[in-house]
UniProtKB/TrEMBL annotation:
Species assigned in the record: Halomonas cerina
Listed InterPro entries: DcaP
Keyword tags: Signal
KW Signal (keyword) present: yes
Protein name (record): Porin
Signal peptide: 1-28
SUPFAM superfamilies in UniProt: Porins (SSF56935)
Pfam families per record: DcaP
Length: 391
């Protein structure tokens, strides 16, 4: 499916936009064990996919789109059906003298890089007295600006809706977390590949955890959030070393105009944030081949969308955009920088409805694009349907 492995690692840990629209825990099967209430919940989901032109993996990954100059772009019509997004979760709730103790363990079948039906861990965390410890969604944004789509891969431009190890403290609408620096952010690059990806520098290292902060609030029908990120990017071969500071900011909002009409959108921007932006086109940073300095890459993205009630369901229209500024890398002579992925876009239109409780159907059409730094482009059209049974 082309050279998209450097991006696929972060993409396969993303959350489903559709899943955020469905409150699973409220449908849980509950039972008591002493003072603890345990619950089991999840869903079975069938995805039915037809790629009109370019063949993409189960996830609609932009980095896998063949360029127009690639003969594969002329091979039309590809079908796949899978149930990899199906998931199951186990949760507990135990009262204590200082508040409720909660734990969650959840998994699905998108393991094996998303190419095989392997069980993988999504969530494994506990919450008590404002402290969250374990693996769960990053604290860096993505909630309100996420458009409801059927494709398991969220649209580019959002903060990455993924899960990673972290220690978080929450009080009211504010939360701060120390997060795993080896997962979402990615590594410093020594160069790029002809397929659009990048080569991780052999001496890239992660010394400090990533720091994320978020505030979420409401004002009438408006819900909003602001998130910040700080991270260190470093290379060290034992003799020479250099580092730089990566930072990012996200603004997002959701506004219920009427009970039947909701608008949402968000903007993400930063230097060296890498995979903290959904489908980051490029590496977080590179090593200048002349000076040996670590130079961060600027990434910018955003999403806009509308959700309209119609009959037994909702029509969802959403657009996502992410781009990398590679001019400095090209001027510095970084290997294959002119062939690196530069800009991704997604446009999704769907209708999702529920004929009865716990049963959901959906139909979706999407148009996705990929552009590399030298101006070459490719695009893909996908038709996707789904059936979901929730328990």
């Amino acid at each position: 499916m082309g050279d998209y492995n450097n991006i696929k690692r972060s993409i396969v840990f993303s959350t489903s936009s559709l899943a955020l629209a469905v409150s699973l825990a409220s449908q849980a099967y509950e039972f008591d064990v002493g003072d603890t209430t345990a619950s089991i919940y999840g869903y079975v989901k069938l995805d039915m996919i037809y790629d009109v032109d370019a063949e993409l993996p189960p996830l609609g990954v932009n980095a896998a789109i063949p360029l127009d100059s690639d003969p594969r772009s002329d091979v039309e019509g590809h079908t796949q059906l899978h149930a990899k997004q199906s998931r199951i979760a186990f949760a507990t709730s135990t009262p204590t003298k200082r508040g409720e103790l909660k734990t969650v363990i959840e998994g699905d079948f998108f393991g094996g890089g998303g190419d095989r039906e392997e069980f993988r861990l999504r969530h494994a965390y506990g919450e008590w007295n404002g402290i969250t410890a374990g693996q769960t969604f990053t604290n860096f944004g993505f909630i309100y600006a996420m458009n409801r789509i059927i494709d398991f891969k969220p649209q580019p431009g959002l903060p990455q809706g993924a899960r990673q190890g972290q220690l978080r403290y929450t009080t009211g609408g504010f939360s701060v977390a120390l997060e795993d620096p080896t997962n979402l952010g990615g590594s410093v690059a020594s160069g790029f590949t002809p397929g659009g990806g990048y080569v991780a520098h052999a001496d890239s290292k992660d010394t400090l955890p990533d720091l994320t902060l978020r505030y979420m609030g409401e004002a009438g029908s408006l819900r909003y959030g602001i998130s910040g990120l700080l991270r260190q990017l470093e290379v060290d071969d034992g003799t020479d070393n250099d580092s730089t500071l990566g930072w990012g900011i996200n603004l997002e909002a959701e506004y219920a105009v009427t009970p039947a009409l909701t608008l949402r959108g968000g903007v993400t921007h930063g230097e060296g944030i890498g995979g903290y932006i959904e489908e980051a086109p490029a590496a977080p940073a590179y090593v200048d081949p002349v000076s040996g300095d670590v130079e961060p890459i600027t990434l910018t993205g955003g999403t806009v969308g509308v959700r309209v009630a119609a009959g037994p369901g909702h029509i969802n229209l959403g657009y996502g955009y992410a781009t990398a500024d590679l001019d400095d890398a090209i001027q510095a002579g970084v290997a294959n920088a002119e062939l690196a992925n530069e800009t991704f876009t997604d446009l999704h239109l769907n209708y999702i409805w529920s004929p009865i409780r716990n049963v959901f159907y959906g139909m979706e059409v999407s148009h996705q694009t990929r552009e590399i730094a030298n101006g070459e482009e490719g695009d893909a059209v996908r038709l996707q349907g789904m059936v979901m049974y929730r328990f």
